Amino acid sequence: MQAAEHQQTVDQAQPETKRDRVRRLFIAPLAAEGMRFERGTSEEVQVKRLNQMADDLTHLSDVELGRLRLCMRSKGGGTKKTFWPGRVSILGYAESVHPRPIADLPKLKDWFVSAVGRGAVADMARLVAEFEFWTRRKHPPFHASHERIVAAEASEIGPRAERLVERRGRGALSDPGDVHWLARYEETEAMLRGWLAESGGGA
What we know:
The chain is mainly α.
């Protein structure tokens, strides 16, 4: 029995964990469609790889896991495309569905905080825009073209945040999309202020 099938049977009698959700929505359906490990892969290695796969994908929503599953159906290895792809391949496609949050990647988070440096909180729109760039690309804006992307996003983010805050103050912020956007912006801003404060780079 392949590890994916055995693990699904074991998990059915226990409360669903984050790993279980990924197994149910991503791993088990692909295994049912024929995705498997190459012959000779030990049970121990199979379990280890599937656990790592589940942990790597817990940030994806149910819908996003479904999208990734549809994508990976044709990305298997071997002549019949039925062997589980390597971790790097799955992570790459997962990033295209939903970039993994920097907060989940401590080394990248530390790099980001170090790169933006002291005084970054002086321009929160720029800081949030750069954070979004890092989230998508997993690296800082190295080139002039990258800087232009960040600057353009900051020029949109800042004024929009100001307008929505002003409308909220007047009790005129009612559009669900605007409410969600502002809540996410302020949540990101608070998180970044906290990161910089912890590092001594902000307050």
